[in-house]
């Protein structure tokens, strides 16, 4: 396309769902007896979603503490009571096992329980695999193989438990419940068809530019086939986020920056002059939402 001509064709913009992997893991760590080290407790439990901590418990505070706002806002009050009840049961069983073997030294028992899901192109969430692993003093003790639906026992001591548990279906309830609560949307700001290359773009929250530390992703300025350029930025935010987001774009051919608030698909057309000789079309500033909504796929 000749940059000297005014572009009159319109862009076809649709909401498109990206494909992403999500994970939820709970890690329980128990010591056979207390140690005099700061921050090291006899029992701890930690929830991780996409490797970010969502809640925490230890045997000193004896409280299950939410670490994310959506955990506080969306989970019912009895969730925390039930969680504490389950934790108390785990602790009793663990220490019965420790004392049954009359352990005098410090030993560590760890249990990791969770799942992975995949977001499909249509936005639905599909269960991929379950994770259930036990380790003792850092060595693998027993693990669930999701592909064969069987337990793997690396040591002879775990064989009786393996035989008893083989054939039991992996529980998906925790994963299904918590992952559907933590829904997100992806805001994407795109501008294409500009020349020269230098352009300033931000995704702003309440008027403040977001950065890579806030999760902003961009491949930078890329060339088009017609010798113009394009740039795209995106950021993932909680679906329930009520803050004001906007796309900010400035270019040397603009009389003033373009600022568009999130909430619609925008088509903006304007022209300018480059060095008095070329007509520039900054083809469009598109601020659109990739809504990540769906339900857990059931097999």
UniProtKB/TrEMBL annotation:
Q: Report the PROSITE patterns cross-referenced here.
A: IG_LIKE, IG_MHC
| Keyword Translocase listed | no
A GO-annotated cellular component: extracellular space
Superkingdom: Eukaryota
Where do transmembrane segments lie in this chain? 83-102, 266-290
Please give the PANTHER family that the UniProt record associates with this protein. Answer: LOC571647 PROTEIN-RELATED, MHC CLASS I-RELATED
Q: What is this protein called?
A: Ig-like domain-containing protein
Recorded source organism is Hucho hucho (huchen)
Lineage, broadest ranks: Eukaryota, Metazoa, Chordata, Craniata, Vertebrata
